[in-house]
Predict the structure.
Amino acid sequence: MMHVGLNLKDVYEDLDPLSAYFFKIGAHGLVCFHGRNYSIKQRLTAEQTSKLISNPVYYRISTNCYVNLNQIYDIRDHVILFRDETHGIKTINVPRRNLEQIKTLLRSSNRRINGVDQVV
């Protein structure tokens, strides 16, 4: 009998910040990443945090919260929706002024939201 091991990716050990839907920065370098089926807190150095928030993939929606523009599925009212076929929809509320800026950024990058081209 042959036993085959499955190569399961451990999200906690191999977290890719670019796969997170959004993250929040807490006190003392603690960053909480929210993804399709996880919320993981990690302690980052000031340099790591600075590099993360300067990445153009992320957009700041509040003092300590950044959303991943590449993971946005749809925008409705004051809510950004992130969709995963397996795990459903995860949402985050966003102030109106930030939503307009996010829509502009998505249009300028010719992104698709909910199957509709977002072109100026």
Q: What stands out?
A: Confidence is low (pLDDT under 50) at residues 115-120. The domain at 17-110 is CATH 2.40.50.1020 (OB fold (Dihydrolipoamide Acetyltransferase, E2P)).
